[in-house]
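Hey team,

Filing this mostly as a record. A colleague (T.K.) asked me to run one chain through the structure pipeline before their review meeting, and I want the input and output archived in the tracker in case anyone asks later how it was produced. No errors, nothing strange. Just documentation.

Input sequence:
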Amino acid sequence: MLMITKAADESARRAGCNRDRGRAWYYQTWFVLMIVGMFGCDHSMAIIEPYFSDRLYFQGTVTSVRMDGDKKQVQAMVRACL
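Output structure:
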């Protein structure tokens, strides 16, 4: 069994898939890149988020308003847009 593991490790090393088994898992490259990517994503979102508006934006003059449905529901929708 030990020979198979050594042969598989040797084959993987020659293919460029060398695993460093001497370091702790949190020092592995994939983990470090995952954490750095997460921080980069969070920080970039924090920088650009103030420039985005998630609300509806109306421009121009209101010429007519059609009030179909419940009056309270329409008023709530208008208040949400202000």
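Quick notes for T.K.: Residues 23-55 form one domain. The helical segments are 2-14, 29-48, 71-81.
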